[in-house]
Design goal:
- It is a single chain.
- By secondary structure, this protein is mostly beta strands.
- The protein has helices spanning 4-15, 150-153, and strands at 36-37, 52-57, 66-68, 71-78, 81-88, 94-101, 119-121, 124-128, 134-138, 144-148, 168-170, 173-176, 186-190, 196-200, 211-215, 218-224, 228-233, 239-244, 259-261, 264-269, 274-281, 284-291, 303-305, 308-313, 321-326, 332-336, 344-348, 351-355, 360-365, 372-378, 389-391, 394-398, 402-407.
- The strands form 8 sheets. The protein has a 5-stranded mixed sheet with strand order 1-27-28-29-30, with no helix packed on it.
- The longest helix has 12 residues, at 4-15.
- The radius of gyration is 21 Å and the shape is globular.
Length: 414
């Protein structure tokens, strides 16, 4: 007969459902760069919302944290320093901290913290600050491995809201939409040394983070720059495709990341721009459809599921709506104004987990026919403009002053 202790252990092991495909969230928009998680989550929330495991005061930033090997990497500004910190993901306990001085000031009056998420690759952390310093640290200790003021080196003019496109690690390279003149619009740096490997285009910098995919047997880096779509061979920087796509308004930005489904690229922007779906064919780009009215993503990247794009349509808080459209045609399936403002969101277990800009967290069914909201709870104060992060059933949310961890692990009821 099994011992009493063994029976208790077996009962406890079954009380919490195993995390299906538990994943790190090592870079902006997660392990597949598309805002999706393969984990199971709790879909029945108590009235007070999911359990709050810990809360921590943080400095100014719009940068989403990242998670690898049960460590949370946070990038924020404290005083006149940009700070990278490693925390124990389950408890928020500090593990190490690295800081360097910054003089960045936002010319539009927004906060002066970093905009771009860090990226973890193996035993290294990469971060790109608001004034354009690219930093590489040891993941284990926070020790500096290299740092380059890449924006000043390449004479990059200060963009409207500082540098905000997150670094993407691809093979031995770190890819950035720098926005420098004279052929330094996009650059690749050796991830071990920081040396420049290649430069391409003279496109200005956007706030959109590039996506890397294998298409037609080639690893392609897909950028949504300030000028529009640029697709390069990731290893060499050789340009393969280009499409101008931006607002006619000077004071405008492209911010949502490209959505890539097989060989189709979806781009969307506000400022009266709209959306376009393009097929990357051996002979060139083929436009599947283009519409000013189908979808206008501001900064939240749409998420694809079974041929439907779920996104936030609208530039301003009032007038922004959740929307579902067909990827193949742009046809609008439904639109819902639910008062979340310009929400940011991820997808897990058949649901969108959305954080409204006034701090309301909503659980929304992924449904191509209609908007179905399962739960909503207030968790943070305005403004919340950073997408949620999910790893091992724990959800991380932040505003300009606070970082919190909620427990979304699925619990089995018997």
């Amino acid at each position: 007969m099994p011992s009493r202790e063994l029976l208790i252990a077996l009962f406890l092991s079954q009380a919490i459902a195993p995390q299906h495909a538990a994943e790190d969230w090592p870079c902006f928009l997660g392990p597949r760069q598309d805002g999706t998680s393969r984990e199971r989550i709790s879909k029945t929330w108590p009235a007070a919302g999911p359990p709050r495991l810990w809360t921590r005061a943080v400095g100014n930033a719009y940068s989403a944290p990242v998670v690898a090997r049960e460590r949370l990497i946070v990038f924020h500004r404290v005083g006149n320093d940009e700070v990278l910190e490693a925390l124990a993901a389950a408890t928020g306990k500090p593990l190490w901290s690295f800081r360097y001085p910054t003089a960045y000031e936002d010319q539009y009056g927004y906060n002066n913290g970093p905009r771009a998420s860090p990226a973890v690759d193996g035993d290294r952390v990469y971060a790109y600050g608001a004034e354009g310093k690219l930093t590489c640290l040891s993941f284990d200790t926070g020790r500096t491995l290299w740092q380059r003021p890449v924006n000043s080196e390449h004479r990059v003019p200060q963009a409207f809201f500082g540098a905000g496109s997150a670094p993407v690690v691809e093979g031995n390279l770190v890819l950035l939409n720098l926005g420098g003149p004279d052929g330094a619009g996009i650059a690749a740096f050796d991830k071990l040394t920081g040396n420049t490997v290649w430069k391409a285009t003279s496109d200005g910098a956007s706030y959109s983070t590039p996506v890397v995919r294998t298409i037609q047997g080639k690893r392609l880096a897909i950028f949504f720059t300030a000028a529009g779509l640029v697709v390069l061979e990731a290893a060499t920087g050789v340009e393969r495709y280009r499409l101008p796509f931006r607002s006619r308004t000077y004071e405008s930005v492209n911010a949502a990341s490209p959505v890539v489904v097989d060989d189709v690229v979806f781009l969307s922007a506000t400022y009266n721009t709209g959306a376009v779906a393009l097929r990357l064919e051996p002979g060139g780009l083929r436009t599947l459809w283009q519409s000013r009215d189908a979808m206008q993503n501001h900064w939240a990247t749409s998420i694809h599921h079974d041929g439907i794009l779920y996104g936030m349509d609208g530039r301003h808080e009032y007038g922004s709506n959740f929307r579902a459209i067909e990827l193949a045609t742009g046809r609008v399936r439904w639109t819902a104004d639910q008062g979340l403002g310009r929400a940011s969101f991820i997808m897990a277990d058949g649901h969108l987990v959305a954080l409204g800009e006034r701090g309301e967290l909503a659980l929304i069914e992924v449904n191509p026919q209609k908007y179905v909201e399962k739960a909503r709870v207030k968790v943070l104060e305005y403004p919340c403009w950073t997408p949620p992060v999910l790893s091992r059933g724990l959800l991380y949310l932040r505003n300009e002053k606070q970082l919190l961890c909620l427990d979304l692990r699925e619990v089995l009821t018997r």
